[in-house]
Amino acid sequence: MTPKKNKKPLTVDQKISRRTFISFGAFTALSASVYFSWRWLYKSPLEMPAATKGTRAPLRDALNNNEKIFRSGFSHKHLVKTYPKSMAAKTVRYNSSVGMNLKTPFNVAEWKLQINKASGEVLNLSLADIKALPKTEIIFAFKCVEGWDQISHWGGVKFADLIAHYNLQEETKFAYVAMETPDKGYYVGIDTPSATHPQTILAYEVNGKPLPVKHGAPLRLIIPVKYGIKNIKRIGSISFANERPRDYWAERGYDYYSGL
Ligand SMILES: Nc1nc2c(c(=O)[nH]1)N[C@H]1C(S)=C(S)[C@@H](COP(=O)(O)O)O[C@H]1N2
Ligand SMILES: [Mo]
Known about the structure:
25% helix, five-stranded antiparallel sheet, elongated, membrane, binds the ligand Nc1nc2c(c(=O)[nH]1)N[C@H]1C(S)=C(S)[C@@H](COP(=O)(O)O)O[C@H]1N2, transmembrane helix, Molybdopterin-dependent oxidoreductase-like protein, OxRdtase_Mopterin-bd_dom, alpha+beta, binds molybdenum atom
């Protein structure tokens, strides 16, 4: 038999003082780490102003990294789930109207969609021009970041069809598509792969009828791979850029990518 090591058990007092020492040490370490993290964050650079107004860049890192993961898994073959027409809401939910000023009447007949080409040339399309292209319909679950979702039915022209018809292939080499309301009060930036996704449409109909003003007449974006915030209503202009275009909700702290 090997003799037991002669280790004296700790007295109660010793146990207490040891625990106190450990927890005090842990508390000190935690406080120091909180302080230094705060200092690090405080001294860190500001996030790109157009993307997120005045936020320290590291606070956005998680979202930006999420974006990288989402984008690496993004494919035009991966389609958002669609539903039968019978499941589409008869009364479509209305959310907000930034950049639409619903109190003053909006003259749809005078409206033109302005497309700013890379060459500097500007296309001005009427609603009739847009309706002349093949119509695409989609019934999907529209999701708002505020926590509601609803199956709704939209009709319009696929953004990719508009690109092809108006020979905007050069423009799709830019990383982002920017869309703004005519008064520039609401604006979104969308990564080009999402904009040219086969389910992304410039919608002029809801439930088979012309869009009501509150839902974005005469033309709104329906982009099922994104949250509602990116589905800009009453589009006035479209441009293309390699830098992230300004984005209304990203400036207010929401995720720039806002992918689903
Ligand atoms: N011009 C404009 N487009 C907008 C908004 C807005 O306030 N103004 N709100 C967005 C948000 S947050 C959502 S959820 C959807 C809501 O669209 P709906 O009102 O047709 O349901 O529109 C998006 N597009
Ligand atoms: Mo929303």
